[in-house]
Amino acid sequence: MQIRHCRSDDYLNVSSVIKTWWNGRDMKLPRLFFEHFQNTSFIIENDAQEVIGFLIGFISQSQPNEAYIHFVGVHPEYRKKGLAQKLYDLFFLEVKMHDVHQVRCITSIINKQSIAFHTRIGFEIVNGDKEIEGIQVHSNHGGEGVDRVLFVKGLNEFE
Amino acid sequence: MQIRHCRSDDYLNVSSVIKTWWNGRDMKLPRLFFEHFQNTSFIIENDAQEVIGFLIGFISQSQPNEAYIHFVGVHPEYRKKGLAQKLYDLFFLEVKMHDVHQVRCITSIINKQSIAFHTRIGFEIVNGDKEIEGIQVHSNHGGEGVDRVLFVKGLNEFE
Predict the structure, then answer these.
(1) How many CB atoms lie within 10 A of CB A103?
(2) Tell me: the pLDDT tens digits for B84-122?
(3) Domain range for B27
(4) Residue A56 domain-assigned (yes or no)
(5) For chain A, what is the domain count?
(6) Does any CB of chain A come closer than 8 Å to the CB of residue B65?
(7) Using the beta-carbon criterion (under 8 Å), do A31 and B142 form an inter-chain contact?
(8) I want to staple B71 with a disulfide (CB 3.0 to 4.6 A). Which of A131, B18, B46, B56 is the partner?
(9) N-acetyltransferase domain: which residues (chains A, B) (predicted)?
């Protein structure tokens, strides 16, 4: 198993596995992240050099002390082995070296697994304008009618 | 008419006009650009403060001397008035102040208008791996079976 920064030529591999890993859901991930955010994006490959996990993130250009994690995926057969946690930890280490103090990400209210995961690794849910099933939600955050759960995590430099 | 940097709260307005401006095509533009790339993204409003044009771009994080223009739109009733050109010029000025020497963007081979526009304002087409109707194209650039035309423009500091 190898973990490394992402490269432009990972794009085809990653975009082709997304449909399978998300049970056929057509998630769009534009190539630009693989071209321009390589230093804060990571790939995990198995010994056969197949992609088994990836994290796409960046440092906010307008708020340079913040970073954002956009897209994370782990091969279904390699789940529950701590790979996602490993990707997040590496991202935190990387962005801390660039004076980032907090990391943000978002998810859908239906994605209970993602909400549980982010809460477990230390993200807090940002208060929104309504509550659904006990969870604070931001209405229309992803466009008209598209509610989102927002997460934030402070980065402690001694962690 | 007013031109200004984009803000988070422009997202709903812009995402709601996109469908109309693109004749019903469902173009996805994630909110993250409006949150994290405000200083290199611009909005034009008319006197009634309606959005009539926008440009979403950023400085490449991995190649800091490059910038990328991701999404540009002009209200159909305000086309052919030089608004797109104005948005690009402002983007060039902004990124030059951050030592950017070249700007990249991409389009589809079917978008002849976009190809003509970019060529007119000084972009060059990057040589690809095949030619379609006399235009150099990069196969699978946007994913399996999705070919793209790539543009690059050098920024001259005395321009």
Answers:
(1) 24
(2) 999 999 999 999 999 999 999 999 999 999 999 999 999
(3) 1-84+94-100
(4) yes
(5) 2
(6) no
(7) yes
(8) B56
(9) 1-156
Cite the DSSP H helix spans in chain B.
11-21, 32-36, 83-96, 112-120
CA nearest neighbour of B49 among B81, B1, B82, B15: B1
Domain co-membership, A106 together with A149: yes
- Are both B123 and B159 inside the same structural domain? yes
Question: Which among B103, B98, B107 has a CA at the least distance from the CA of B136?
Answer: B107
Rg (Cα) of chain A, in Å, rounded? 16
For residue A63, the chain B residues in CB contact (below 8 A) are 36
Residue B92 one-letter amino acid: F
pLDDT digits (tens, 9 = 90+) for B40-79: 999 999 999 999 999 999 999 999 999 999 999 999 999 9
Q: Does A12 touch chain B (CB under 8 A)?
A: yes
In this prediction the ipTM stands at 0.94
Q: How far is A40 from chain B (nearest CA, A)?
A: 9
* Euclidean distance between CA atoms B128 and B139, whole angstroms: 8
End-to-end CA distance of chain B: 25
Give Cα separations from B5 to A2, A36, A56, B63 (angstroms): 41, 21, 25, 23
Answer whether residue B121 is part of any domain: yes
